[in-house]
Design a protein that fits this description.
This protein is α+β, with helices and mostly antiparallel strands. The protein is built from 6 helices and 5 strands, in the order ααααββββαβα. Strands 4-3-2-1-5 form a 5-stranded antiparallel β-sheet. The chain is elongated and about 80 Å long.
Length: 186
């Protein structure tokens, strides 16, 4: 009994130390990537939730709850959550993409980008990167909301300035006019 209490106390201390380390590491990474505080808070909360689940699992094991009992409990919870999320798979994929974008997306708020899409290329400035989408303001002033899961699947070109983005837009429009003119001549 004393060993269990000692292990639980040790786990609680380690949990709080690692929790603070995790929070400060995410905040430091967010500052180095110039990410908004809201986004840093969101990612920190999501990672903290996973970390807490692992902590609860370890506490259950220390208390002597069997692997079989834990397996039944967690498989039941995951089955219910899985069915709920399967109905909303796009939400789950956007949340996962949000975490990937936070840690690995090479573009930041304020960058001028072009999302290459065969139907409609989106050229503009990134206004916000949120939990579910990236908001891009086009040169015309229109605002485009692009889902996180899709922006990871498309080629994204980053421009050094607004002038470079405008030049690329002009080049693209001239190229379209030339192709259209050639089609009419034939």
């Amino acid at each position: 009994m004393m060993v269990q209490l000692g292990l639980i106390a040790l786990l609680v201390v380690v949990y709080f130390i690692l929790s603070r380390f995790l929070k400060s590491s995410v905040a430091l990474l967010g500052r180095s990537k110039s990410v908004s505080d809201v986004r840093v808070s969101y990612v920190s909360k999501m990672l903290h939730l996973g970390f807490t689940a692992i902590f609860v699992l370890l506490i259950c094991l220390v208390l002597g709850i069997g692997y079989g009992q834990l397996a039944i409990f967690f498989s039941s919870v995951f089955a219910v959550v899985g069915v709920a999320l399967f109905a909303q798979w796009s939400i789950l994929s956007n949340i996962t993409a949000s975490l990937i974008i936070f840690f690995g997306f090479p573009y930041r708020v304020g960058d001028w980008v072009k999302v290459v899409d065969k139907d409609d290329e989106v050229l503009g400035q990134i206004l916000e990167i949120s939990s579910f989408h990236v908001i891009i303001q086009r040169l015309s002033g229109d605002v485009v909301t692009y889902p996180n899961s899709l922006i990871l699947q498309k080629a994204v070109i980053r421009f050094s300035s607004q002038e470079a983005a405008m030049a690329a837009s002009q080049f693209h429009q001239d190229k379209k006019k030339t192709l259209t003119t050639e089609d009419k001549v034939e």
